[in-house]
Amino acid sequence: MKSNIPVYDIQNFSAYKNDGILVNRFGHYARQHQHLHNAHRHSFYHLVFFTKGSGKQQIDFKAFDVSPNMIYFMIPGQVHSWDFETEPDGYLINFSTSYFSALLLKQEYLDKFNFFSGRPEEQVLLLDNVTSEKITLIFEDILKEGETATAINDDLVRVLLLRIFIEVARTTLSKDHQELNPYNHTILKNFQQLIEQNFTKLRLPKQYAELLYITPNHLNALCNDFLATSAGKLIRDRILLEAKRLLINLDLRVSEIAEKLNFEDQSYFVKFFKKYEGTTPDKFRKQYITIS
């Protein structure tokens, strides 16, 4: 029997006095939800800060080591799994896509943090000891709010959670990001947002450059200088990521996936996937789906 990778909603977990957020010590959560060690997806935001443990985890098919002082952030829809070698602990927070809507007028506020970009290489961070100690205290304050007998002050928890985001962002700003002027930063952010909105329709850097009112050479230079990759590769990587996410859904045939991604036919899609992934869609699917 074949099994798809499951998708979990925040209502699948016991709440933290509010249906929109779950806060827990990670060791307890990992023991309680053994099924989450296997590949899965969720429809909410998710972050974990490790204080102990070792092993591996995968985010959107990219592998990362697990270690103390590591924090990672995930956005809805990403594929994730853990494979621990030693017992882990730390803190975990899941929160819904609407959790901050009652507090923040700017619904896109979280987009300002690079670790909510949806790009795994920006979502897994190793913090210094000072920052780790600082956010450990904040996590403890959030847990204490959940343990009080009185009704939880949701806005206080939201503010504490935002403080974690800001403290982490302050310490992880790279030199490149510090030197990136507001104009170039806006162009790159807009480019990444345009890719997210149009990757199934627009495949060429010149098409995005036209939307951004700059030349393709300028766009490519910005990507190479500040993101260390070409504009074309950013577009291809998003197409490939969506292909992988669709391939783990066994209800879809490869031909249907090719159609969803606007490839001319299945053969062209297979050639594209094999060229950049080094394997065929069928072989990739077998790596991530259990057949018994």
UniProtKB/TrEMBL annotation:
Residue ranges annotated for the HTH araC/xylS-type domain, each copy included: 189-287
The keyword Transcription regulation is assigned to this record: yes
Listed GO MF terms: DNA-binding transcription factor activity; sequence-specific DNA binding
Keywords carried by this UniProt record: DNA-binding, Transcription, Transcription regulation
A Pfam cross-reference name: AraC_binding
PROSITE patterns per record: HTH_ARAC_FAMILY_2
PANTHER family: ARAC-FAMILY TRANSCRIPTIONAL REGULATOR (PTHR43280), TRANSCRIPTIONAL REGULATORY PROTEIN (PTHR43280:SF32)
Protein's recorded name: Helix-turn-helix domain-containing protein
Organism: Pedobacter chitinilyticus
